[in-house]
Amino acid sequence: MPDYAIGLDLGGTNLRAAAIDRSGVMLDHISGATNFTEGREAVLADIVAAIVKLREKRGAAGLAGIGVGVPGFIRMKEGFITGSNNLPYLENFPVRDEISRRLAAPVILENDANAAALGEQWMGAGRGVDDLVLLTLGTGIGGGIVSGGRVLRGFVGMAGEIGHTTVVTNGNPCGCGNQGCLEKHASATAVTAMAQLMQLGHNLTSKDVYELARQSGEAGEKARTIWRVMGEALGMSLATLVNIFNFPLYLLSGGMLPAWEFFAPHMMETLERRSFTYRATKSETRIAQATLGNEAGLYGAAYLPWVEK
Amino acid sequence: MPDYAIGLDLGGTNLRAAAIDRSGVMLDHISGATNFTEGREAVLADIVAAIVKLREKRGAAGLAGIGVGVPGFIRMKEGFITGSNNLPYLENFPVRDEISRRLAAPVILENDANAAALGEQWMGAGRGVDDLVLLTLGTGIGGGIVSGGRVLRGFVGMAGEIGHTTVVTNGNPCGCGNQGCLEKHASATAVTAMAQLMQLGHNLTSKDVYELARQSGEAGEKARTIWRVMGEALGMSLATLVNIFNFPLYLLSGGMLPAWEFFAPHMMETLERRSFTYRATKSETRIAQATLGNEAGLYGAAYLPWVEK
């Protein structure tokens, strides 16, 4: 009888893998740097090696399944990655089947933000909640939707691309072809760009802008304006999500959460003004911080074999 | 063994009820004018009388269940209607339980647009498709989402309020407290308001604006501009929906469909530009006209007892 699953999360700087049991206890954990520039074979070999190592340690007999979270859009049926900025050499390549072949075991491929949403639902801020949306606020903005306890994937596997929904009709241009995308107005990259537009300095990180916001004086004022605009963009997106889904829980994660005190009040104000559904369900609808940090995707990947069976 | 269900659709001008069998054949049909101004008791009596009449004719033994579609938001657990412009006297009143009591039979209450989406999925343009979104283009814009063959209701029952998602950041004000709502830029009411702003005349209906668009000359040009702006608003909303859901089918229904030739090209152009998910799945994603017209809600209401069991 299977007693653990293996999850792997392929991130921009780290590859993490873990053996996790059905109750969410992490039994073993592997973490290593990823070097995307080394190309396809290196990345595939790293993925397979990490999984093999965990499987050998825990034993193949107890393995319930293997889930792999990757950046980019997944074509579920084919097991392809498409539209991944970080992993162009994995595109239009049968990555799932190739990993599966090398492991001689089935593998479930999932988008990293979807996996993170599932992880939060299983072991994080969404425990006990069947329906939630997660927004990952990083250099880009990923989205993951869990509906009825399962990832909402859409018919191709590309659902949940909330970072590319419009929040400013004629806003900043985006590489996706659209303009005014959420991630062009509320990601760490957007905060950095606004800092430059506000002449706060070049190459400031979102953390720098957070530190500035804590100061008094003109620079502090400008930094707080940036967080206001960022919070309003998030609030706009949340209003749309609440009106569409009427889910009980919306989670935010990522490196910008420390600035919560500066953006969240504006986010909530915009959400409240723009969504009567939110106002009508205010006591029951929660907007909250995710709790698993960058281990959410790892938990979600390991949960896939249990929940997709 | 049950062989039919009763569906009832309570509209602004009509109350329809029908006995429909499991395969979608309409066995009996009742239609009458509704007079919302007569108050709660009159409306409740009309609803109950129509259902009783059908049940008596077909026999209670064969009745699988009763579904009732109403305008307004539904609080599912309580069986209440909330936020209905047309039926204020039914708000915060146990309407489902009261109908159920008078019929001595369980009743499933559903929002009218949700019921219409389910009806299209069962017997209309969505046959054979498990996941779709329906937008009803009327004096307002309703939305209904079917996911995995069932209505996506959200935890309170208010999901699918797509008409109140923002498509123009600083657009027209809406009674819901938001501004730039889809229904303030793409409904029949919005088309009428634009006709007035364009000085095409007072109190023109959307049908008048459609007729004008077919003409040459300045008025025709202005009318076509209105349909362009309306189509772009719809395209914006569809781009958001496609990015979020990655569903295979998005349906439009309502009295403005005759103007399809004038708004649809702009709608599709905006959708294509604003959604890379659409571009990546273009051959598989359909934007189409609903086919059941104003009987969609009736079919959907009658399907509820089968699908919610």
Written account of the structure:
Two copies of one chain form a homodimer. Chain A is α/β, with parallel strands linked by helices and 309 residues long. The first copy, chain A, folds into two domains: 4-119 and 294-307, 2-Layer Sandwich (Nucleotidyltransferase, domain 5), CATH 3.30.420.40; 128-290, ATPase, nucleotide binding domain (Nucleotidyltransferase, domain 5, 2-Layer Sandwich), CATH 3.30.420.40. In chain A, 40% of the residues lie in helices and 21% in strands. The first copy, chain A, is built from ten helices and twelve strands. Chain A has a five-stranded mixed β-sheet. A five-stranded mixed β-sheet of chain A has the order 10-9-8-11-12, with helices on both faces. In chain A, a hairpin with a 2-residue loop joins strand 9 and strand 10 (150-151). In chain A, helix 6 packs across helix 7 and helix 7 (217-245) crosses helix 8. The interface between A and B is large, with 51 and 51 residues.
